Every structure is written in structure tokens, then in C-alpha cells.
Amino acid sequence: QVQLVESGGGLVQAGGSLRLSCAASGRAFSMATMGWFRQAPEKEREIVAAISWGGRNTYYADAVKGQFTISRDNAKNTVWLQMNSLEPEDTAVYYCAAERLLSPIVVLTDASQYNSWGQGTQVTVSS
């Protein structure tokens, strides 16, 4: 498994931006597809974005297309989620997740497909 630590969450006003980081331990990161999920109070965890370990393929939930950008640097064992034009509806705990795959192009979008999770970082957007 990959150990993951998220950072970068906080309180921001509507229309603002945040950049979340997820630092991974171990060489396994370079062959791990990565995902960002979020969970708002009394709601199920949902996919936000995902990126293949080769970095060429990405997925975005419809709610964040054009607003969020996922990226990674395998040399730094880090994946980022750039979040722009934040709205109160984006308030949630954001989690990064990792799953090792043989294929460098596959993107996983279901939480049940990931076996490694970070502890989460709170993002609160005030109106």
C-alpha cells in the first residue's frame, strides 16, 4: 500500500482558490493511479478527479469540470488538486486515494477500487 498525507485545506471565501496536496511515501506511487474524493456532511463520498499513473489520462466529475485540475509529479511523489472558483457546495473533507496498477493509462473512479487513503483535509467555503 501507499501511505498518503493530504494538506492545503482551509477556509476560503466563495470565488477563492485552494490547492490541495497529497504526499505519498514509497516508490509504489509512480505506478499508482490517484484519485481525489470528497465527503460532505451526511453525504456519500464522491469522486472529484482522478489521474492515471502515467499522467496522461484524467477524469473529472461533472460538478468540477473546468473548475478543478488534478496533476502529479512522480519524481516528487505528489499529486495536487487545484480548486478555483470555489463555492459553498464544495465544502467537504477531501481525501486522496491510491491504487497500484500495471497500466499507466487506466483511471479509477470508484472509491471501492482504491485501497490506500489519506486522512483527509477539510475545505470550507463561506458564502
Describe the structure.
- This protein has 127 residues and is mostly beta strands.
- It has no helices and eleven strands.
Order of helices and strands: EEEEEEEEEEE
Main sheet specs: 7 strands, mixed
Average of the residue pLDDT scores: 95
The structural class is mainly beta
Query: How would you sum up the global shape?
Result: globular
The amount of helix comes to under 10%
β-strand percent reads: over 45%
Helical run tally: 0
Q: Uncertain segments of ≥5 residues (pLDDT<50)? A: none
Q: What is the first-to-last residue Cα distance?
A: 39 Å
Radius of gyration, taken over Cα atoms and rounded to an integer in Å: 13 Å
* Strands, count: 11
Notable traits:
4-stranded antiparallel β-sheet; mainly beta; globular; 0% helix; 127 residues; 11 strands
Q: What does the secondary structure layout of this molecule look like, with pairings?
A:
Layout: E1 4-7, E2 10-13, E3 18-24, E4 32-39, E5 46-51, E6 58-60, E7 68-73, E8 78-83, E9 92-100, E10 116-117, E11 121-126
Parallel strand pairs: 2-11
Antiparallel strand pairs: 1-3, 3-8, 4-5, 4-9, 5-6, 7-8, 9-10, 9-11
Write a short abstract of this structure.
With 127 residues, the chain is mostly beta strands. Helix content is 0%, strand content 48%. The protein is built from no helices and 11 strands.
